Amino acid sequence: MGEKRIDKYVFNTKNKVGEGSYATVYKGLNEKTGEKVAIKMLSKSVINADDYLREGLIQEIKIMQKLKSPNIVQLFDVMETQNNYYIVQEFCDGGDFDELLKKRKILSEKEAIKFLIDILNGFTQLIKNGITHRDLKPANILIDKATFKLADFGFAKCVDNFKKDMMSSMVGTPLYMSPQILDHKRYNSKTDIWSIGFIFYEALFGKTPWTARSPAELLKNIKNQPLKFPIDKIPVSQETQDLIIGCLQSDENKRFSWEDIYKHPAISQHFSEFLKSNSKLEDKAQYLINDIRLMIIKEKLDITKLFAELDMSKDKALDLNELGRFLTRVDKDIQREEIEYIFNKFDEDGSNSIEFEEFQKWLEDNSIHVHQNQSNREQQKKQSILTKKNIVERANQVIEKLKLAINKYNIQLIDLFKKFDKSADLKLDIKEMGMMLKKIESNITEDETQTVFDYFDINKDGEITFQEFQTSLQECIIRKK
């Protein structure tokens, strides 16, 4: 009774090992190999009815397929039946880190460092693939034969520009969120560094560095209460304290970078190969900078003409392949990994494309004198103004289409608002608002979405309350009356 078979995998619905809002996880078996597996079952009717859930599932699968590491839960298979989706992954026999902390209360410093090394080893693969986890918490760290493994990538964000990409959706578990997410501010991949420091502190001292009853109170406490270490009760080395302090800087600019963490004396001896690889990429970048400088001087290149020549798609921006062709012209032996590394250096705003201003700025920042005549400069300025004007016009059209749809179908504003308020906090973040707008205009761009969001976000606090939503659409209400 209760036994199910999905291709070569079998499981019994009585062998449940976990359950969430949208999925149930069962212990199963690969009949061909005899290997134990974890089978995550998701209802197709639930997932397909919600764009947010479907996007999260697709994202999780794509990311897990990329990642190969002994410290990341491995994906084996993805299948579907008439009623369900199934994600088959590595079975971890030791439960999760949250259960371990509840049972053990605290870990010794040596044990906590071992845990941290495992987690950071997993993160080397996320960094290499340009992935931010965004929902790192003890329950999303699984244990298999005393090895800690990263899991649950449903909220992860995959970006080509790992270090600089700015994200603004309110996701994750509030207690472990960085102050930027709690404050509805834009943030980058350092949000994971905050979470790592938070969990590491909890493992050492049996409590989190700050506590609160709500996200707002947590943010207030982080801002107003200094970080303290109860070393009178639980002695911890100065090195370890220093590492935690670097991770738990509320100001992202002051918070440790990934390189700072991997170079930290508390753990650096375990990551010599990773550091060596990064150092080689930086050396290669500097070598190419010098070659680009010599090329521009020797050929007396006009920077505007050079950019236009490289922009094969004529979309006023360079993608990875277009920049790659230029770098290959400079060094025919350049590797793909080196091109990606240098692309990230150009891509100042993390948009996954290099606009002319970024291209010019990077060359000038590296003391490469660029030639550009006055008419070209004026043309670039006019083009930038025109682009911004087009974005505003398109955004206004989307707002009008939204208003028309509300009137045409007699939609109640509160019902519309709640449908896309996935976090059920009576606020819309930019991702939730973006999903609403895609129903109106499927090909809406990120810039247009941001412009519409800013229109509704009357007090400019990074979120749209129902009152703001209602006020912005007031003329719809008047028409209905």
Automatic annotation (TrEMBL):
Family membership noted in the UniProt record: Belongs to the protein kinase superfamily. Ser/Thr protein kinase family. CDPK subfamily.
Pfam short name (any one): Pkinase
InterPro entries registered for this protein in UniProt: Atg1-like (IPR045269), EF_Hand_1_Ca_BS (IPR018247), EF_hand_dom (IPR002048), Prot_kinase_dom (IPR000719), Protein_kinase_ATP_BS (IPR017441), Ser/Thr_kinase_AS (IPR008271)
Listed GO CC annotations: autophagosome; cytosol; membrane; phagophore assembly site
UniProt feature coiled coil, ranges: none
Keywords, sorted A to Z: ATP-binding, Kinase, Nucleotide-binding, Serine/threonine-protein kinase, Transferase
Sequence ranges assigned to domain EF-hand in this UniProt record: 298-333, 334-369, 408-443, 444-479
The keyword Zinc-finger is assigned to this record: no
The species this protein was found in: Paramecium sonneborni
Matching SMART domains: EFh, S_TKc
GO BP: autophagosome assembly; regulation of autophagy
Residues engaged in binding ATP: K40
GO MF terms held by the record: ATP binding; calcium ion binding; protein serine/threonine kinase activity
Name listed for the protein in its UniProt record: Calcium-dependent protein kinase
Segments forming domain Protein kinase: 11-267
